[in-house]
Amino acid sequence: VSLPETGPPLIGVLGGGQLGRMLALAGIPMGLRFRFLEPGQDSPVRGVGEVVRARWDDPDALRRFCDGLDVVTYEFENVPVGVVGQISEWGRVSPPSRALAAAQDRLSEKELFRRLGVQTAPFLPVGTRDELVEAVRTLDFPSVLKTRQMGYDGKGQRFLRGHEDVASAWEALGDHPLMLEGFIAFERELSVIGVRGQDGTVAFYPVSVNEHREGILRTTRAPSPGVSPQRQDEAERIAASLLHELDYVGVLAVELFDTADGLLANEMAPRVHNSGHWTQDGAVTSQFENHLRAVLGLPLGSVAPRGWSAMVNLIGSLPDQRAILAVPGCHLHLYDKEPRAGRKLGHVNVVADTPEALKERLERLLAIVEGEAESLVPQAAQASQSP
Ligand code: AMP
């Protein structure tokens, strides 16, 4: 399939969050148009395309959404698989719904990794309290109890340090299908973003080094001088085996734990990913543009880095934008969202010609972003003291 001869291509996107917004911002210069299916109000995609606001299971809305689309993709990985199956009867959906189904269930995701020979933390399914006790006996402490579904940004999981944590973890999560994982004392968290075109061509961005805070991605660095060519190869082999196995088309992200014994896969996201946002300013072709090229059957663009990059997420409140833009190499990306605690409101990409210059710029940037976060604390304290 290639670009239609008549009219600009219309891309349907399931979900209307910031990832959808950034897909559109990458596609509009290529002459693409976008339509989003999004249940929520005031989503970040208003202004970058047409929005069909409806529940996922509203058949009329689904038909309206699909009418005249050239291809359907998603930016939200918890779209019900049944909805994607229904849409596939009417037209082409990329990435394949199999990838979505695997990513929606942590257990089947880890089983898929294992089947492909990809190392993971040891894990066991947990359906009952007795199974939890049994799993704890096998995997021991520390371990991590996770819901199989709907977990993201560290939600739906409890760390078990000892027997005293078991009852409260079961209390909190026991209503859901669960799994227990052995705790991995990783050195750092990495991710690899791969893309596969319709002709089977694959490409991989330089591995990102990620730092999380309270379960939410805080900063990403890529390329990183600390990532050896061996680690890059290892990460690419993991992503490549998933891309081929799933007959995947589009961008796929795999989150990894770097350990003394090699890389372990923690989870995958069948979509563009927060740890790939640096590619907007720090790679020849961004992950968003490459995803669109892939799903439209167009040639992929170069994934080569342009210098050394980092990304800092703006979470909860927006810092002084003028100060940020005064730091050389910084680019601001805002999502048009109302500030709220723990909410991703935007990110800043910073690019430099050398790792040393990047370090200096990133330190300046973080001082501005963190300074803002700190300045909120006294305000909150004052508010709570006032009558
Ligand atoms: P997840 O929701 O699986 O991405 O987990 C969120 C975060 O929890 C990860 O980014 C890790 O920092 C941490 N984590 C998850 N699973 C494990 C594990 N088995 N061992 C150690 N840390 C983990």
Q: Could you explain the architecture of this structure?
A:
The protein has 12 helices and 17 strands. Helix 1 (18-27) packs across helix 10 (287-295). It has 387 residues and is an alpha+beta fold. The longest helix is centred in the C-terminal third of the chain and has 31 residues, at 355-385. The strands form 3 sheets. Strands 9, 10, 11, 12, 13, 14, 15, 16 and 17 form a 9-stranded antiparallel beta sheet that branches. The chain has a 4-stranded parallel beta sheet with strand order 3-2-1-4, with helices on both faces. The relative contact order is 0.11. It has helices at residues 18-27, 59-66, 81-90, 97-104, 106-115, 129-139, 166-173, 229-245, 279-282, 287-295, 321-325, 355-385, and strands at 10-14, 33-37, 50-52, 71-74, 123-126, 143-147, 157-160, 178-182, 188-196, 202-204, 208-213, 216-222, 250-259, 262-269, 308-315, 330-334, 344-352. The structure holds adenosine monophosphate (AMP). Adenosine monophosphate (AMP) binds next to strand 14.
Topology diagram in text:
Layout: E1 10-14, H1 18-27, E2 33-37, E3 50-52, H2 59-66, E4 71-74, H3 81-90, H4 97-104, H5 106-115, E5 123-126, H6 129-139, E6 143-147, E7 157-160, H7 166-173, E8 178-182, E9 188-196, E10 202-204, E11 208-213, E12 216-222, H8 229-245, E13 250-259, E14 262-269, H9 279-282, H10 287-295, E15 308-315, H11 321-325, E16 330-334, E17 344-352, H12 355-385
Parallel strand pairs: 1-2, 1-4, 2-3
Antiparallel strand pairs: 5-8, 6-7, 6-8, 9-10, 9-11, 9-13, 11-12, 12-15, 13-14, 15-17, 16-17
Helix pairs in contact: 1-10, 4-5
Bound molecules: adenosine monophosphate.
